[in-house]
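In this supplementary section we document a worked example of the pipeline. Step one takes a protein sequence of length 468 as its only input; no multiple sequence alignment statistics are reported here. Step two produces a three-dimensional model, which step three serialises into structure tokens for compact storage. The input and output of this example are shown verbatim.
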Amino acid sequence: MNNNFDVIIIGSGPGGYVCAIRSAQLGLKTACVEMNSTLGGVCLNKGCIPSKSLLHSSELYHKAQKEFDNLGIEFSKINLNLSKMMANKNSSIKTLTKGIEFLFKKNKVTHLKGRGSISTGNIVTVTSESKKKESYKAKTIVIATGSQPTSLPGVKIDENIIVSSTGALSFKKVPKKLIVIGGGYIGLELSSVWKRLGSNVTVVEYLDHILPGMDNDVSTEFLKILNKQGINFKLNSKVTEIKILKNKAFVDFTSNITQKRERIECDNVLVSVGRKPNISEDIEKLGLKLDKQKRIRVNKKFETSIKNIYAIGDVIDKGPMLAHKAEDEGIAVAEIIAGQAGHVNYEVIPAVVYTYPEVAVVGKTEEQLKNENIKYKIGKFPFLANSRAKVNSETDGFVKIIAEQKTDKVLGVSIISSVAGTLIAELAIAMEFGASSEDIARTCHAHPTHSEAVKEAALSVDKRPIHF
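The serialised model returned by step three reads:
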């Protein structure tokens, strides 16, 4: 009886542990399998949380060096203690992973330690670190095993000189020269960290712009901001080879336009070219259907091709690879399993780049709307004209609101700001309830706050901003 459960979730990342807690809250006898020594998955242990810790610490270090003097805050000397900064990061991770352990106990979720595999449609085998195997029976199984970094053909990540995001979060010393391959979210965040701490950083991106998939206005403006911060870019460039000689890396790349070849010597290379589902190749033998990207196919109820097996998060063919998307899916699938109507609105999932300033987006881009032949109007407001941003010396960036031309319904929003990740929540709520730009414009926003720029952008949709 102890080995029988209503639901077993494989993986304790943001999707898995949230699904486990919600399942238990709904009265289901629940277990969660995790192969690592701590709960929380990649996000909590090697991704979202440690990167935000280093982003915050490095930002304060940079401001103390470059900006505090102008504010009348004077220091005689600023020192970087990288080991202490890393210890602070690790302490935060430990506290949060222990927090999930507490929540499991509080909600009576059974924590199964080991690597989980599905033997049959309702049997999960857990293999411990000592190779001991134990089988558990479940009415329902949820696959929530997340994703892992991909690399380039012929490039081996050793987490020493050539690193993934995992290695780049644990450097023992600041690289004098760092090459980052990939100008997406993770590459730009970690470029920012190590640039602030003293690295000479160059980003090599295959496309002719950074932040693929975001609004072109954002990509263009943000590139200018990062250039101003001292990060170098080699756009429209294809990496052809990386060699290691005498503890140095040599990165060869070719211009996609001129075919000119270049080589840069550096101390470390961060490969940040995407992620792939963290699932075994044997999973297809169970009868689970995958798409061309080797993601698990699911229907609207997150059911796989096997009726009692569900999947969520980075392993499925729905939505972006984001922690908060996985959390929403975890709650939705738990409620569906319990007989309720779980739902995720994939049209309103915000995405944030936690650099300084931050970049946050939700909904459609201007380019997507053009491709879909949807007529729209735009309102844009710069933070240069926002009083709170001005006094805080945070004037880089803007708010851009795109609304449907006839109905005025908000279809997409892009923000570059020091607090973009927080501001985007207001727009996500507005879009979830089908708000118009007029609804936002007519809503009183506190003064002086960065959020007034949101109101002004909404006013700008109808060509009536007050402060610009």
